[in-house]
Each structure stands twice: as structure tokens, then as C-alpha cells.
Amino acid sequence: MPPGDDCAVTAPSPHPLALTTDALVDDVHFRRDWLAWRELGRRVITVNLSDLAAMGAIPAWTLVAVAAPAELPAHALDEILDGCADATADAGAVVAGGNLTTAPVLSITVTAGGTLPGPCLTRGGARVGDHLLVTGTLGGSAAAVAAWLAGERPDASLAARFVAPVARIAAGRALAAAGAHAAIDLSDGLMADLGHLCAASGVGAVVERARLPRLPAVSRLDAAGHDFAATGGEDYELLVACPDEVLPRLDALARATDTPLAIVGRCVDAAHGVVLQDEGGRPHAVRTRGFDHFGRTT
Amino acid sequence: MPPGDDCAVTAPSPHPLALTTDALVDDVHFRRDWLAWRELGRRVITVNLSDLAAMGAIPAWTLVAVAAPAELPAHALDEILDGCADATADAGAVVAGGNLTTAPVLSITVTAGGTLPGPCLTRGGARVGDHLLVTGTLGGSAAAVAAWLAGERPDASLAARFVAPVARIAAGRALAAAGAHAAIDLSDGLMADLGHLCAASGVGAVVERARLPRLPAVSRLDAAGHDFAATGGEDYELLVACPDEVLPRLDALARATDTPLAIVGRCVDAAHGVVLQDEGGRPHAVRTRGFDHFGRTT
Fold it and tell me: Where are the domains of chain B?
């Protein structure tokens, strides 16, 4: 862990520590012409902080391990690390250290740690009758990737969703403190991640397609037959299961955390499965095998 | 972080936490015919635990992020993860979680955390007059790599040094508790890492080439004109700077931790630089620019 000692040292905390690690690999998770180096650095931090947000944790530190081809320009590495540092600092955390190695393919693996001063949200706590809510808007990131892969220029509002996702740290903490039962971050796509949450909780779910929060550009695409909001991955919004008693507080929580919150469905008995309902109340079939990188599921 | 929640959660500790991350990349840090998959898993954990050892930390958890080509056989991935789990458990720690992604090139990035219940060793604490000691033997790993790259089969004692290095956790803790001033793990090679330690501490050093602990196979090579013990990287032994008062306890510390300890030199005024002395007391020139992977510096 250059340039300092063999390890970084962090101060003791009286709280449990939440830990996560996630990587972005060149030409697997991104293409170089989709975002700037600094944005790539910010993005890989955000992807990890989003996991902390889903647990209701407060980001404390990040570690940044870069594997880069020798021919990567020095300024590119500097800008990636600057982006990592900026996004970490924006979350009130510190880049505690990292590693740099040569590799044939550029990849950035981040580990993030966060403290859990209050209740910890998991995937397994949802109960029948819980309301399902999501932060922000869905499908924009996958819609942007689909456009890029088709050789088109995505609407700027969509590109921004891929390039600069937001980790919903304040919302995760506030919902955990307010009594939410379960949460997961939306990396694989709503229906896939809802499936993970339902499986872990032993419940089913019904989600109304019409209630999914969308950017206008996503609404147009979904109205034309796509399912970006229901299945598009890598939005890094949160899906949260809340009991009735949290509902009266949602508006206040949304304002306090500056985070749009939308109710999209409810948890039902596991026997009903995990269902997306169309505008007429009929099941709407989508593929939910998990996010296939580069948007091939959408 | 499949298959569980978005984060692993560890219990609070009253002690500071030491953190490190390090990666092994296919065809950069290893070649697949040099070691078995399980050994590769063990090795990447050990490389990280060695950094904890150099700080005097007690391993608590590891996170294992694997990036693997789709064509990697499933058993290979299983064996890598088994090796990671075994080496982590051997150190009394747990694999708290990880990540798996597709990538064109196999790489394994591990993050390790350890608690610091006592004094923390750094690179910057060495003082003029300190004795320099190393654990184990030096140069075996680089000698094995040099043989492989030359198309030869290394002596088994050398191959074992590359394939199955040992993190000197007990020795690091015991030396920290005994009053050692500074430490670094030997990943870049003795003279390179000694340079890092001296730079951080603001001291110089004189090391006697004849005192470097070597396997018999390394002794033969170094007698024939090589400098594997002085410059060979990736032994993952510790270099420790100790004041006079630790010396009478070295034999007992070596026995208590089952770790060979050898005094190889002393810290001197920074003006003298960092010098390797040959058997006649003359400076012995070596290249110490850091470990160039695949042994090209030796």
C-alpha cells in the first residue's frame, strides 16, 4: 500500500463495520468513450457506497486497487484517483489506501467500510404487507448503455445516470432509522434485485409497472415497448421494504434527505411469486436473470 | 457481495483497524503452471496478511474480489476460493465477503483487515543504531521465478517459497510488543524495502551480505554471482528495526513464534545511505529499484 506503510490504520469505532467490495473492468462494465477518467473514479466509489447505503451504514473509508496497462497515460490514472478521492470525500469518508499493479486490462477494485450506528438493513427482513419503495428514478443507466451499444448518442439525462450515479446514503440511513424492514441496492435491475430481496425474506411481491419512477426519456422508451425501468441495471438506487407505520413519514424523509421516494408495490405471500403488473393489472413478463453487462437483457 | 446482503458486517472492536489491499494478476504476478489454483488462493491471502504482520496486527477478516474470464473452469474458481478460505482461517480470520466479475484476464484482489491491540509498527520508526533483523530466509521466491522463466525446474525448496509463502503474523505481533521500532514486509526485495524503511525513518543502513539467511539452494546461486537474497522480491518475510534492548530476547521470541530471526545489519546516519557490504566490508552494488515482476531485476 504505497506510499505510506504496509497498512492504513483507522481509529476504533464503537459500532459494527459494514464492508463491501466491487470492481469495474474496462470493456466489461464500461467503455472508455462513455465517461471521463474522473467520472470513472467517482463511479467505482459510488457503486461501493451504494452497498453501504443499502445497509444504512455511514461511509468511513475506501481502499482503491487499480490494475492498469503500462500504456495507460499517467494523467488517466491521476484523474481516476482524483475521482475516487472526490466521491469518497463527498460521502464524508477518506481514501485510506490502495494498491497499483500492472495488468493487461484496466480494472478498479474498491473496498469500502462504513459504520452502523443504528439499525442495519438487510435483504432478509421484508414481511408480507410491506410497502416497496424506490429512491430516484429507474432505467436511465441501462437505457444509456443500450443507446451507446446501438451506436447512438443517448439523451443527456440518460447518460448522466450511467456516468454519475448517486449513492443514496442519507436515504438508506434515514429509512433504516425510521423502521424499514429490508433494503437492497439496484445494481442488477429492479425485478432481479426484488427477486433477491424476496428470496432472502421469504415473501413474494407485486410491483405496478405504471408506478415506476422514470425520467421522461425512459418513459418514452418504456412506452415504446422497452422495460428499462423494471429491468435495467446499474441505477444504484435503493429498493426498500417498509411497514405501514413508515408511510406517513415518507414525505418528510424524502425532504430531509433530498431524495425522491416512490412506492411501487407491496410484499405478498411467497406463493404469489414476484410479479410485475401492467396498467390493466395483468402480469407483465420481463427477463430478470440479473444484469447482463452491456444491457443485453433490456 | 453475493450471495448474502449488500455488505458484510463485522462486530465492533475497541482497537484500531489496520487495512490493506493487494492483487495478483494472471501472467503478471504468476503463471498458471507455477502453482495450483488452491495455492494461488492461499498465496493472495498471504500477500495481504503479510502487510498486517508488518504492522503487528491480528488478522480479523478478508474480502476476496475475483475477476475471471468466462472460460475459467468452475473448479478453478472453487479451488481459488477454497485456498483463500483456508489461508484466512489458518490466520484465525474469516472471509467476510467478496465480489465476482467477468474480465478478460484473471485477477484476484484481496482486502484484509486486522486489529491492533498493542503497539503498531510502521516504516518510519527506525533510529540510528537499531539492529536490522529479518524473519525466515530470503531470495527463494525470486530464484524460483528466475528458474521458471529460464525454462528450468527450480529446486523444490525454492518453488515452495513462491508457491506457499508464510505471513509472519506471530513474529510481527511479538516484535511489536517487545519494542521494535519499525517494520516492513519484504515484497520488493530486501534492499528495495530497506530503502523504503530508511527513507520513511530518515536513517541509512548497512547490511552484511554474508549474514543474509538463505536456503542452501539460494546460497549456491548467490555464491555463483546472483543476489537473490539481497534483491529478490516476494518472500513476504519481515524486515524489522530493533533497539539494543530487544536483542537479548530474540532467541526467546524466535522460539515462541516458531520463526527464524536473523540480524543482518544496523541503521546508521542517513548520510551513509543504504549499503550492502560484501564479505570484505566493501560496498556490494545491487539494483534496488523495486521488484520488477518476473524477476527481471535479479
Answer: 17-115, 131-277
Cα(A46)–Cα(A37) distance, integer angstroms: 14
Instruction: Say how many residues make up chain B.
Output: 298
Q: How many CB atoms lie within 10 A of CB A244?
A: 9
CB contact under 8 A, B67 and A114: no
CB proximity A120 to B under 8 Å: yes
Chain B contact for A102 (CB, 8 A cutoff): yes
Q: What is the pTM of this model?
A: 0.92
Please enumerate in sequence order all residues whose Cβ is within 8 A of that of A53, keeping only pairs 6 or more positions apart, or say none.
A167, A168, A169, A171, A172, A173, A185, A238
Question: Is A104 in contact with B28 (Cβ distance < 8 A)?
Answer: yes
Mean pLDDT, residues B47-55 taken together: 97
Provide CATH code, domain A131-277: 3.90.650.10
pLDDT digits (tens, 9 = 90+) for B83-128: 999 999 999 999 999 999 999 999 999 999 999 998 899 999 999 9
Query: Interface pTM (ipTM) of the complex?
Result: 0.90
Picking from A19, A25, A65, the nearest residue to B103 by CB comes out as A25
CB spacing of A63 vs B111 below 8 angstroms = yes
CATH number of B17-115: 3.30.1330.10
pLDDT tens column, B246-256? 999 999 999 99
| Chosen from B1, B10, B21 to mutate, greatest number of chain A CBs within 10 A | B21
